[in-house]
Amino acid sequence: MEGDCLSCIKYLMFIFNFFIFLCGASLLGVGIWVILDPTGFREIVAVNPLLFMGAYIVVGMGALLFLLGFLGCCGAIRENKCLLLFFFLFILLIFLAELSAAILAFIFRDNLSRDFFTKEMKKHYQGSNSSQIFSSTWNVVMTTFECCGVNGPQDFEDALYFNSHYPDDLVPEDCCRRTSPSRTAEFLSKEECLMGGEIYQNTEGCYTVILNSLETYVYLAGALAIGVLAIELFAMVSAMCLFRGIQ
Predict the structure, then answer these.
(1) Quick count: other Cβ atoms within 10 Å of Cβ 176?
(2) Whole-angstrom distance, CA of residue 106 vs CA of residue 23
(3) Phi/psi at 164 (nearest 5 deg)?
(4) Which of 4, 81, 170, 206 is most solvent-facing, going by the fewest CB within 10 Å?
(5) What is the rounded distance in angstroms from the CA atom of residue 156 to the CA atom of residue 137?
(6) How far apart are the C-alpha atoms of 18 and 162, rounded to whole Å?
(7) Is the whole-model pTM more than 0.70?
């Protein structure tokens, strides 16, 4: 009976990890194709920094799943205790990393408040042409989500660096509306926007826009996270049962 159970676990692990292996290979192939594609798709992705960064994230996830599936498949079908141990440790590290991220997010949840972002923007923002990482990140966010500041254009009234270096502008260029979503598109009216013309500005704050855009995915993300943790626990238990059962 013990042998039948171990045999069942062995083939379940192989099938489960074979699907992980295929998913990883698919993600890896798609990510590499997007980055290296010579037919023009790469240029389309490069226009949007978030999409360009997403392509590398897809490659990283694909490589991780590819390696994980490979270890699980080979360890199960060959009954190799060394590969099963590596598979278990790999899953354990991922599980602990996810658990640590959840704990840190809970501890530092106050640092994600509206007041915190508003204070940081007023203190560190340096304008649309700045190469400083904080400012360039905010510029990308404002352009991508078509928003302005944390709460709205009024956030830049007390922005120290921005006011001292751009005394004639009430908002940065990234708050101005454009004729198309492309970052390189023409402004509807750049001068009127910079001088405070609200009809030419994105008047809604980024904090509200981002929360509204993510709200529909919160429950889905929570269910997905619970499902992933359950699968990881199942994979670790199965690997250890098979590891202990191999003579």
Answers:
(1) 23
(2) 31
(3) -80, -30
(4) 4
(5) 16
(6) 54
(7) no
